[in-house]
Task: structure prediction
Amino acid sequence: SVMDLKRCMFFFTTNYLHKVDAGIINRCYLVEMNQGKDPQSYLTIASNVMTNMGLAITAVAESTVLAHASKAKGSLREFVSSVVIEGLKAGGIVPI
Result:
């Protein structure tokens, strides 16, 4: 009944939607957070990481970035960590 109050807003996250009670799902807006369909969309993020590390955006090969994007399967944290490691290998620094 608390979820029916007009003055309240709730945010729920789950990896197991099938385990959530139907009554709760019925009162919510479902926002899917899935992997980007196009690995090319990760290139902009990688170029920003490279720039912040003091590297040219071409310091890590595009094919390597795309491989890391596919391997991450939608996990932005895993993708950025992989790109940072590649940037360190290329001589970049992690700004503090």
